[in-house]
Specification:
The complex is a heterodimer of chains A (313) and B (258).
Chain A lengths: L5 E3 L2 E3 L3 E3 L8 H4 L10 E2 L16 E4 L2 E4 L8 H12 L6 E5 L4 H11 L5 E7 L10 H4 L2 H14 L4 E4 L7 H10 L4 E4 L3 E3 L16 E4 L4 H12 L6 E4 L5 H10 L3 E4 L2 H4 L3 H16 L24
Parallel strand pairs in A: 3-14, 4-7, 7-8, 8-9, 9-10, 10-13, 13-14
Antiparallel strand pairs in A: 1-2, 5-6, 6-12, 11-12
Helix pairs in contact in A: 3-5, 5-6, 7-8, 8-10
Chain B lengths: L1 E14 L2 E7 L12 E5 L10 E4 L2 E3 L4 E7 L3 H6 L7 E8 L13 E7 L4 H12 L3 E8 L8 H5 L3 E6 L6 E2 L2 H8 L5 E5 L2 H10 L4 E5 L15 E3 L9 E3 L6 E3 L6
Parallel strand pairs in B: 8-9, 8-12, 9-10, 10-11, 12-13
Antiparallel strand pairs in B: 1-2, 1-7, 2-6, 3-4, 3-7, 5-6, 13-16, 14-15
The chains are: A alpha/beta (313), B alpha/beta (258).
The structure holds flavin-adenine dinucleotide, flavin mononucleotide and FE2/S2 (inorganic) cluster.
Flavin mononucleotide binds next to loops of chain A.
Subunit structure (chain B): Heterotetramer of 2 PyrK and 2 PyrD type B subunits.
Organism (chain B): Mesobacillus foraminis
Function (chain B): Responsible for channeling the electrons from the oxidation of dihydroorotate from the FMN redox center in the PyrD type B subunit to the ultimate electron acceptor NAD(+).
Chain lengths: 313, 258
């Protein structure tokens, strides 16, 4: 019996490991490296109604233990995603989570409505947390009322469950999480990148053409864990956790914090085989830690001992 | 493309802060085109996080070996410089589309224009061109005498001009001074180096066919992250784009905005 299968709203996952949005494109490049069927799911690149070129380069800068990116939601637009990218992915037996973005409520609603009807899209990830676009994006993710209202509108048109992707760039993430739960969100994904900056020693100017960018990678892991720990105790919808995951050990830590599945972002750039490696390593690690199924790990950092009575570690 | 731990065969300082690193690995078999690059993890762990793109300078199929030539400048290349023969280096490659050798026919004149750390991939290119009967002229630009490398190796393959910015070796000035002075009537020009140099080579229209190898900061190196995109020349503000890592790094002059 599998130790890794997980059922979440809209998602029947073989395992809880998936690449994070923006770090895997629409899968094509990685399909040359391994069979995408082994992934739990794929979170594809953000889709906006119209094609977007994104920000000028340089778009990435390195930081200790992480990186900054200011891609600016470059994507081919809804029409092409529906006619080319998603149909191409149908050859794989893997559920797709479509990342929905935009500048206005109407943008989100339009993308959500159309993309949720694509046969291999099993859930939406509402990206209200992109720090790299001038309008929309993060604005919706930092105000509980706006976040709730947008969630309601998207829920009203989506034919699949809606996960809302939370921004860590807020004072009180729990209030945003509760607001989107009240707005009808089926789940949460967290965290998106932390707003940051690097300066060039010679020119004294920012390295990124966009000046600021989103921090990701191992450096953000403690922030992600803390936020998942706080939020998971206050909401009853599941959380897909992300932020600096590099190993099977990291995955377990995210589950302990309160995640029910995880996504891997930046580490795909360092090791394109990281997702398959983690999936392969998880069963042995779980066994070593005394678990018979990964779901036993969710929220273990804060759940009361009695809730685990059936588990004798 | 493979991800492989290649072993260091030799590692030599060949000019001021310039190193020649010979590696052995299975991925050599997949290396065909000059101008392709590899993505190098210079250390285990998190310092630094990202891989470093370095061009393939020489391919030796019989020995399953390939050569990288790089300048030690920042954190990543400084760590790479510490590798010793026998050490393993985590490499992803070969990546990208290199210089089209087939575009030069037997008996054609190809002019290869390189600047600084753009010179290395031209060496494998010159070798492959010469072996198919193309006449090669190399124009290599460096900052100063101390940073010149591979001059005699290039000279074995064709007439070779060196320009240094400070005039301490060869012609004083830039590679374009040589191009402007000599009027080569090349059938094809291949170039790699700093962006201002590539721009000058493009604007000079020194041949009908001109191919340029671009540089951009990279994330994944395989086309998935959109870190390295550039606009198309005929649509400089629009949506159309190319990725330097997977569509390039070599483009025909006039294809992308540089
Ligand atoms: C396709 C391609 C081929 C290259 N081939 C060679 C080669 O054969 N020999 C050689 O010496 N150099 C080459 N470079 C440049 C080389 O990648 C950089 O010099 C190197 O990444 C610097 O790393 P660092 O840690 O020493 O510098 P740092 O400045 O500390 O690096 C910080 C970050 O910026 C990036 N970066 C810095 N400079 C460059 C640059 N010029 N291009 C792209 N990214 C950069 C680094 O990769 C890293 O992510 C090539 C670049 C590209 C894109
Ligand atoms: C280059 C890059 C592009 C990204 N693009 C998106 C995106 O389009 N939509 C989105 O919701 N998140 C995007 N993200 C955020 C990631 O999905 C993830 O939430 C974040 O990077 C934290 O995970 P990590 O530390 O494992 O990378 C991007 C991250 C990176 C590094
Ligand atoms: S470096 Fe990731 S797309 Fe080119």
């Amino acid at each position: 019996m599998s130790m890794l299968n997980i059922d979440l709203p809209g998602l029947s996952l073989k395992n809880p490991v998936m690449p994070a949005s923006g770090c895997f494109g629409f899968g094509k490049e990685f399909s040359n490296l391994f069979n995408l069927d082994i992934l739990g799911a794929i979170m594809v690149k953000a889709t906006t109604p119209e094609p977007r070129f994104g920000n000028p380069t340089p778009r990435v800068a390195e930081t200790p233990g992480g990186m900054l990116n200011a891609i600016g939601l470059q994507n081919p637009g809804l029409k092409k995603v529906l006619s080319e990218e998603l149909p191409w992915l149908k050859r794989f037996d893997v559920p797709i989570i479509a990342n929905v973005a935009g500048s206005t409520e109407e943008d989100y609603v339009q993308v959500a409505k159309e993309i949720s009807h694509a046969p291999n899209v099993h859930a939406l990830e509402l990206n209200i947390s992109c720090p790299n676009v001038k309008t929309g994006g993060i604005a919706f993710g930092t105000d509980p009322e706006m976040a709730k209202s947008l969630t309601q509108k998207v829920k009203a048109v989506s034919s699949v469950p809606v996960y809302v992707k939370l921004s860590p760039n807020v004072t009180d993430i729990v209030s945003i999480a509760k607001a989107v739960e009240a707005g009808g969100a089926d789940g949460l994904t967290m965290i998106n990148t932390l707003l940051g900056m690097r300066l060039d020693l010679q020119t004294a100017k920012p390295i990124l053409a966009n000046r600021t960018g989103g921090l990701s990678g191992a450096a953000v892991k403690p922030v992600a864990l803390r936020m998942i720990y706080e939020v998971s105790q206050q909401v009853s919808i599941p959380i897909i956790g992300m932020g600096g995951i590099q190993s099977a050990e990291d995955v377990i830590e995210f589950f302990y914090a309160g995640a029910s599945a995880v996504a891997v972002g930046t580490q795909n750039f360092v090791d394109p085989f990281v997702c398959p490696s983690i999936i392969e390593e998880l069963p042995a690690l779980l066994a070593k830690l005394g678990y018979s199924h990964i779901s036993e790990c969710t929220g273990r950092s804060w759940k009361k001992v009695e809730q685990f009575a059936h588990h004798r570690a | 493309m493979l991800k492989e731990h290649c072993s260091v065969v030799s590692h030599t300082c060949i000019a001021d802060s310039v190193y020649e690193l010979v590696l052995e690995g299975e991925m050599t078999k997949q290396m065909q085109q000059p101008g392709q690059f590899v993505h190098v993890k210079v250390s285990d762990g998190l310092d630094p996080v990202l891989r470093r793109p370095i061009s393939i300078a020489n391919i030796n199929q019989e020995k399953s070996q390939f050569t990288l030539i790089y300048r030690k400048q920042g954190r990543g290349t400084s760590l790479l410089a510490e590798k010793k023969p026998g050490d393993q280096v985590d490499i992803l490659g070969p990546l990208g589309n290199g210089f089209p050798v087939a575009e030069a026919g037997k008996g054609n004149l190809a002019v290869l224009v390189g600047g600084g750390i753009g010179v290395p991939p031209l060496y494998e290119l010159a070798k492959q061109l010469v072996s198919k009967g193309v006449t090669v002229i190399n124009i290599l630009g460096f900052q100063t005498q101390g940073s010149v490398f591979y001059e005699s190796k290039f000279a074995e393959l064709g007439q070779t001009y060196v320009a240094t910015v400070d005039g301490t070796h060869g012609t004083e000035g830039f590679v374009t001074s040589v191009l402007n002075n000599e009027k080569f009537h090349a059938d094809i020009v291949y170039s790699c180096g700093p962006t201002p140099m590539l721009r000058a080579v493009e604007e000079g229209e020194f041949a009908k066919k001109v191919y340029l190898s671009l540089e951009e900061r990279m994330g994944c190196g395989i086309g998935a992250c959109f870190a390295c995109v550039c606009h198309l020349k005929d649509d400089p503000e629009g949506y159309s784009y190319k990725k330097v890592c997977s569509d390039g790094p070599v483009f025909r002059a006039g294809e992308v905005a540089i």
